[in-house]
Amino acid sequence: MPTLERFQQQTSDALLDSATACPEAVSGDKRERRFDVYRNNRAVSLIENLQALYPAVARLVGQEFFTAAARAYIDAHPPTGPVMAEFGEAFGDFIAALSGAKSIPYIRDVARIEWCRNAAYNASDAPVLSLEALASVPPDTLPELRLDPHPALHTVTSRWPSGSIWAATQRPAGTDAPAVDMRTGEQIAITRPAWDADVHILTQQSAQFLHALTQGSTIGDAAASQLDLDPAFDAGPHLVHVLSLGAFTAIAQTLTADPTATPQVSP
Amino acid sequence: MSTKNLNRSAIIAGSLALAVSQIAVIQTAAAASKEKCYGVSLAGQNDCAAGPGTTCAGTSKVDYQGNAWTLVPAGDCEKFGVAETMAQFELPGDRVGSLEALDRDLPG
Amino acid sequence: MPVTTPPITRLPQRAGVCFKHQHYDGIVQDQPDVGWFEVHAENYLGAGGKPFQMLSWIRERYALSIHGVGLSIGSHNGLDANHLARVAALVERFEPHSFSEHLAWSTHDNRFYSDLLPVPYNRETEDTVCAHINQVQDTLKRPMLLENPSNYLSLNTSTLSEAELLNNIVRRTGCGLLLDVNNVYISARNIGYSAEDYIRSLPTDRIGEMHLAGHLVDDADPADPLLIDTHDRAVCDDVWALYAFALETCGATPTLIEWDSNLPEWAELAADMQRAESLLNPSETVRCANA
Fold it and tell me: CA nearest C254: which of C55, C44, C56, C38?
């Protein structure tokens, strides 16, 4: 007699491959039709979850292509757990690898923006470091400060104008798509200043400055790196800009920027 | 520390101090034009939807066995075209590799 | 010496509805008279953000039921301890008035199949499910309710009836039952037995919650019409009639209107809720009329 394990293994095999017969324990002369209910429930619910997570991708590729790609994805990368907000991270890579997607090389980065919005939406709660908080710091100490990134902050670097393409998918149906220069790369930041995830296109300088700050550079060091690349770099407005997006949660507690001035170095 | 570095530090410190001293002004301007401040956000379109969710129900919809390898995207992407040669040039090799790995999932 | 058993539910004897994010703004604005809300545990297992903020708002004003859809209690593999710990943290944080799960499985060998899959009704399943319910109840430090499934097929490895299995599980674990009346109707029609006999043979004093939902009649094969548990439409008249029978048999029980896809405007959901309320508390229909 088949045990529970045997039945669940056979069910799993038959769900993942529709060419595999339904488990031998299923009774009746309509057994395959009856079992198809489960095959269909699984496929449709997972495809609909990808649809909810990737509406911009769906709008870009069209429904038929999206559904076919999602159908293939759920078999190639089935979910490992029941939390649907954690399922589908590799979908952008997957769809970009399809031969039909050669003409849309930006699709992977648009999908990345959508995945990061989902991650930002569900990220842990933390206060947003306000401009007022920065204004209350003695101005001469600003270059020595480090900033803690907000848990919802995500960045995407794209060699395509993926932020602009994503933004174009947000327009109402039936309106004209804005002109986008397809030869321009973009740096995108996703933040959650309140409860909803916002998408921002940054200048390359702002993006690099932000990146250095998130890696733990002091404001002064991050600014100096940009000044090396561009003698006209004006750090102040860039700092105010990235802060106003909600990119940071706090001024870091460790204020010592000069390692030689740190007394508690482990021997 | 060289004179050049000193100058650079002074430039940075001055820029930061000036920007921070103007924060009240900047905020008033930003509040007056929130849409511009938030870059690409289009009014009313940028709220996160409920996103993916679970179900304890079955479905009335029927999925069809589409072939993702023969279909061509036919949505809004037609408005954002990339020349085929340019696209292929830009695709890194590892994506071609994963394309081959997908062949086992082809029906038939 | 009498032993005090914890109540199987702290939900009010009223009709409730599933909480969907699409309805949140309207609920905040109107603060409608709703007996209680139910949510799926797996939709609130992120680190933070708006889902928690919305659920906190609901919990501060209404009774709450947390309904798991992914513990895979019927799984041969054993429960995913990490997932159970996350659900336990959610239950600890929101202190719901009820926690429930399904007589089903959905995970095997680290793969989640996103559906409530059937188990054979026999001793091996009984032992497996009882061990897992004990583990859930020990971890959550409270009794849980177990929901009867929608059946689309029967298994020749079953040696017990579904009602016999549920009776044994309730007796061995002390859990309660969540009687999904729509599921009973679907299963009885799909498999071919009496829905009323099924309800009568349950431990009716251990039913802590009922579910009502809409379903689809799939008659693509006229020789084998199949009822699908879609939760995408209003409750049908036959299920309302079976619900009245269930209330008669089991007594007044907190009842949920489930509507998970093809979501209607709040008013349509509220109409089903008020119909359930009028059957559940016939002497208090004035309150419903004002809701």
Answer: C38
Distances (CA, A) of C273 to C48, C248, C281, C289: 30, 18, 12, 11
Å between C43 CA and nearest CA of chain A: 7
CATH class of domain segment(s) C15-290:
alpha beta
Given A38, A49, A125, which is nearest C49 (Cβ)? A125
CB of A187 within 8 Å of a chain B CB? The answer is: no
Percent pLDDT > 90 in chain C is 92
DSSP label of A255: -
| 3-state secondary structure string across chain C | CCCCCCCCCCCCCCEEEECCHHHHHHHHHHCCCCCEEEEEHHHHCCCCCHHHHHHHHHHHHCEEEEECCCCCCCCCCCCCHHHHHHHHHHHHHHCCCEEEEECCEEEECCEEEEEEECCCCCHHHHHHHHHHHHHHHHHHCCCCEEECCCCCCCECCCCCCHHHHHHHHHHHHCCEEEEEHHHHHHHHHHHHCCHHHHHHCCCHHHEEEEEEECCEEECCCCCCCEEECCCCCCCCHHHHHHHHHHHHHHCCCCEEEECCCCCCCHHHHHHHHHHHHHHHCHHHHHHHHHC
Maximum alpha-carbon separation in chain A: 83
Quote the pLDDT of residue C291: 38
pLDDT tens by residue, C11-70:
999 999 999 999 999 999 999 999 999 999 999 999 999 999 999 999 999 999 999 999
**DSSP for A82-106?**
S-GGGS-TTHHHHHHTSGGGTT-TT
pLDDT greater than 70 at residue A163:
yes
Contacts of residue C52, defined as CB under 8 A and 6 or more positions apart, other chains included, come to A125, C44, C46
Cα of B56 to nearest chain C Cα, Å: 6
pLDDT of residue B101: 29
Which of B64-68, C142-146, C151-155 has the weakest average pLDDT?
Answer: B64-68
A177 touches chain B (CB under 8 A): yes
Using one digit for the tens of pLDDT, what is the confidence trace for A210-257? 999 999 999 999 999 999 999 999 999 999 999 999 999 999 986 555
Chain A closest CA to B2's CA: distance in Å?
14
Question: Mean pLDDT across chain B, nearest whole number?
Answer: 63
- CA dist A98 and B101 (Å) reads 11
Q: Which residue of C has its CA nearest to B59?
A: C230
Distance, in Å, from the CA atom of A149 to the CA atom of A131, rounded to the nearest integer, reads 14
Alpha helix (H) residue ranges in A151-218: 162-168, 204-214
Half-sphere exposure in the Cβ direction for A45 (13 Å, CA)? 28
d(CA C19, CA C25): 12
Residue contacts between A and C (CB atoms, under 8 Å): 143
For helices C81-94 and C123-140, angle between their N-to-C axes, nearest 10 degrees:
50
pTM, two decimals, is 0.90
